[in-house]
From TrEMBL:
<protein>
    <recommendedName>
        <fullName>Major tail protein</fullName>
    </recommendedName>
</protein>
<dbReference type="InterPro" id="IPR016893">
    <property type="entry name" value="UCP028589"/>
</dbReference>
């Protein structure tokens, strides 16, 4: 005989997407949209004589608190590429005084770059003629570099990864939440067989508070599940 469990509930858990831990997720919400067709009762007294309700769609929305490129790729239909560290020689730039001359790759600022004029006759001095950041170099108006001047920068690129946004058509992933009821200490799991995230509507990247972003997508039916009484969408198990 199955055990009927009635208890208070405060949910927490770790969310995995295709087996990858997404980090801190502060909200997981399921929305089920229904469509109802009714046949009016024409025999007097009003009301309906029949009614059929069908599931129109199932949505899963998640609030992400970890801004990894892998997480952002879910909400931006992106692709993540591994970027290796390496030497970049004589990348051509056009000087913008007191502005940013952005480089193709992120600069490893622990290794001083070399900035020269177009014919290599002059080597400019760091912190006198320009300053450096991960995004590029900033020629100083008090230095020897002129506005609009052609310059060349050699630097060491920083290892990391790059997110190419909006290049994928939409990936279907499996989602598993390995949870705990903090009110009782009992475990629970929630499995979504096929989730297709949609592009996020907004992404705040500069703020004076901890950031988060929301991802919503459709929970699709898994056609491989054919057993009677088994959900094609998701299953929740609890101790």
């Amino acid at each position: 005989m199955s055990e009927k469990v009635t208890e208070s509930y405060i949910g927490s858990g770790i969310m995995y997407v295709d087996g990858r831990d997404v980090g801190n997720a502060s909200g997981v919400k399921i929305d089920i949209e229904q469509e109802t067709k009714s046949q009016p009762n024409y025999r007097g007294g009003g009301g309906n004589s029949a009614e059929v309700t069908k599931i129109k769609s199932v949505k899963l929305s998640v609030t992400m608190n970890d801004f990894s490129n892998e997480n952002m790729a879910l909400g931006l239909r992106g692709k993540v590429e591994v970027v290796a560290a390496g030497a970049v020689a004589a990348e051509p730039l056009t000087a913008v005084l007191d502005g940013l001359c952005d480089t193709t790759k992120m600069i490893d600022t622990s290794v001083a770059p070399v900035v020269k004029n177009e014919d290599d006759s002059t080597t400019y001095v760091l912190n006198d003629d320009y300053i450096v950041s991960a995004g590029g170099i900033r020629p100083l108006s008090a230095g020897a570099i002129q506005e609009g001047q052609a310059i060349k920068v050699s630097y060491t690129s920083k290892a990391g990864n790059a997110l190419q946004a909006l290049v994928e058509s939409g990936k279907e992933v499996k989602v598993v939440i390995d949870g705990i009821n903090d009110a009782t200490g009992k475990p629970w799991t929630l499995k979504f067989y096929k989730w297709k995230p949609s592009p996020t509507s907004s992404l705040d990247l500069i703020s004076d508070d901890f950031g988060s972003f929301d991802i919503e997508g459709g929970v699709l039916a898994d056609a491989s599940i054919v057993a009677t009484g088994k959900s094609k969408f998701f299953v929740r198990s609890a101790a």
